[in-house]
């Protein structure tokens, strides 16, 4: 959307950044839960390390839950690392930053711009939302939705006068998102105008609000589409204006990074430190914090890496970032049991227990889904077993657990799940698929056949079922059937990592090495840290006699996982092959 609108001249500021800087795709992970995702961006760490996995935390008085904030972070944000290193840093509106006054940097937390009361006069400034020295100025910078004028909304909905606002509240929704964005912008401009700041991080929710509320009207038909179909494009134009204001306030010699995060996001970088007309490859949300710290000469302990292909020159001589000690997260373990052990047994009402339990379940499920996205299925399985221990009747956890067990090739462990699903519903797609798979892997084709026939019938239009059938076919050595199932998944969504990966394996098993290479390159483009995919890419390249490229792929696999024994063995064979080739002999197979 950015490129299309920029090329049409609608986004002059983003167009300028794109034309004179580096840009590319930015891979995220599932689930794209806002607080979890943006904390990964701020820390460079996976959710299992940084501790933010849901939108709420237990209140200090144990009376329920509250929006999550500073006390739950187990890894430091880049702005606090910079502040500890003596670099004046600020962050505005970032998710999961409640109690902004507690941070080392100047943090204006994500409660600051959320309106309260009927109008500005009845809107209190949230306590501890910012450092005390900034509170007085910030109070007057806020914009209440009631103060958004009709001409401002008309830029988004030209015929707003025809809207029956008693029945249609979407104009109010637009006023809220404009007021929030304008409030964040006012605070950002206040700090940007102070030349002593060396790093400023600003988070806007404008495009998120616009897309969630109005994207469906963009390509729709009917009265609503005619009225609200231009809201998303108008939001992009307004966001471009906000960015332009910050660029003017900061000056032309400022390094700027624009990050759009989600399962499939975007990255734009412009300024003296960044390459001109550069293309960013293989960047993930985990790479943002290490790259920012590297620009200040610091090396962090993170799961991400410095994105050198977006830099004008590789950063050399990094010094270790200062350590910041953080307390253990209060969200570890069984929250209700922990509170009762501290003496709260008689003070927790049933409603409070249920609220806390639901928050814990959401946290565990989000962590499990993020581990699945990173390919760490055993860790995900452990988290899902904790979900089932807390909530034995949970609907989605058994299916996610079965998915992990299948990926771990532990089919027999799925038997209790299959039995429970079929007992609950004799027509269950997943019950039949799992039961059939268990029998098939055990070599009992006769008992597997009716279950798998039911699964194929009921799962014909289900992408996840097709994915599992493809994995089963691979396991049974039927590469042609596996390819058919994986292609059915890709036809619905061409970027499903597991399907692309499985399709590559199925193609290579049938001797289609060029196709296998192409699919594996798509896999590592989306998820660069995937050692087994790099290993298999090395094999596919070796199949084609491209020894130098295959060696590079295998070395990448071993850099990511030094214990990957298959890659070690393949690399040794390739080195021997290269030696034989250099001596004029024949090239042994890899």
Keywords:
590 residues; alpha/beta; four-stranded mixed β-sheet; three-stranded parallel β-sheet; Serine Threonine Protein Phosphatase 5, Tetratricopeptide repeat
Summarize this, please?
By secondary structure, the protein is of the alpha/beta class. The chain has 26 helices and eleven strands. α18 runs parallel beside α20 and α22 runs antiparallel to α23 (513-526).
Provide an overview of this structure.
The protein is of the alpha/beta class and 590 residues long. It is built from 26 helices and eleven strands. Among the domains are: 2-320, Alkaline Phosphatase, subunit A (3-Layer(aba) Sandwich); 528-590, Alpha Horseshoe (Serine Threonine Protein Phosphatase 5, Tetratricopeptide repeat). The mean pLDDT is 90. It has helices at 2-7, 12-20, 34-43, 47-50, 78-84, 132-141, 150-154, 170-192, 206-218, 223-228, 231-250, 288-295, 335-344, 350-373, 377-390, 397-407, 415-424, 429-441, 445-458, 463-475, 479-492, 497-509, 513-526, 531-543, 547-560, 565-582, and strands spanning 22-27, 56-58, 65-67, 89-92, 106-108, 199-202, 256-260, 264-270, 278-284, 298-299, 319-320. A four-stranded mixed sheet has the order 7-8-1-9, with helices on one face.
